Amino acid sequence: MTNSPSPHPLDTAQRPAHLRSHTFHGLAPGPRLLVLGAVHGNETCGALAIGQLLQDIDSGAVRIERGSVTFVPVTNPLAWQLGQRTGERNLNRNLAPSAIPQDFEDRIANVLCPLLDAHEVLLDLHSFHTGGAPFVMVGPQDNRGALEPFSHAASEFQLALHTGPHRIVEGWLDTYARGVQRRAARPTQAGTARSLALVTNPNYGVGSTEYMRSRGGYGVTLECGQHDDPQAVQVARHAILQTLALLGIAPLPLAPEPAAREILRLVDVVDREHPGDAFDQEWRSFDAVRAGQTVGRRHSGELVAAPQDGFIVFPNPRAEAGQEWFYFARRRA
Questions:
Q1: Among 288, 284, 274, 93, CA closest to 172
Q2: What is the largest CA-CA distance in the chain?
């Protein structure tokens, strides 16, 4: 197994040396919103939508009157510069400050985490590899458990409803925890000590929204569509405007919540164990599967089947060995 990104020619002098953000303070008190784009470098819709909003604010078409909003168009500038998902590792995993940073993403985290600390609400804009409709990801119900204690579920769910998509997905962190346990139990794994430590760390599932919740705030991850779909930019723009309206930061019309909604819960994550593992067909996110239906085949010839009726989420036919191949979801009871 390898968790290292493909080699790239950038030496230290060519790599980005700063993280750019734009903050606007209203003259009346209000909430503090953070909007992130391009946490993954090949997910461009958030950065493009933020660029449009910055122009709208500068022109006066959008007025920031209450609280504050900070935009980070490109959250991982090395991955953006390389035009790929990661720089030296996945920024949206193991997100935490590092006393001794070991890679570029650790250094970004040492700037990004204090920025998250300084805000109350997060909108993180992403896109996905294969086809499918936009959806929004939320955290747990209010709880005092050890994995992800939380007390803002109602506000977070309201934010999710106003971002636009009718499909809401939950269950991220506990699904990840099960995947990490299985990974750690594998008898033999290839890869560097650093990569193995990352993918078997209980903190592996912690990204921007999970970190925000751990600091007392709340936030959602909006998956705006397929990477290259031009409509994804409009999905991201609509979500930013609606979030500004919902929080009262800008005097904008608030669209009604979607009349129909579908809530799915992630229940499992399946890793690609070998480069020869292959899907049986070109899956799209939220393709329905029946219990026992073949999803793919291992290099060994072993079939990988759906454990029950449900849906394929985030299928990645080019996942690196040892990393997430696809997720499995069910409708929430």
A1: 93
A2: 64
DSSP codes joined into one string, 28-85: EEEEEEEEE--SSTT--HHHHHHHHHHHHHHHTSS---EEEEEEES-S-HHHHHHTSS
Q: Which of 157, 130, 127 is nearest to 142 (CA)?
A: 157
Which residues have C-beta within 8 Å of that of residue 79, sequence separation ≥ 6?
Answer: 38, 40, 41, 42, 85, 86, 87, 91
Task: Name the residue among 217, 202, 95 with its Cα closest to residue 147.
Answer: 202
Q: Write out residues in the chain with pLDDT < 50, as ranges.
A: 1-7
So what's the pLDDT on residue 1? Answer: 35
Q: Rounded to whole angstroms, how far apart are CA atoms 16 and 260?
A: 44
Distance CA(113)–CA(19), nearest Å, equals 12
Instruction: Convert the pLDDT of each residue in 198-253 to its tens digit.
Output: 555 667 889 999 999 999 999 999 999 999 999 999 999 999 999 999 999 999 99
CB atoms within 10 A of CB 303: 12
Tokens of 20: 């750019």
Partners of 168 in the β-ladder = 136, 263
What's this model's pTM, rounded to 2 decimal places?
A: 0.90
Q: Which helix (H) or strand (E) holds 184?
A: helix 172-185
For the chain, list the domains and their CATH numbers.
12-260 (3.40.630.10), 264-333 (2.40.50.100)
Strands 121-128 and 66-72: unpaired
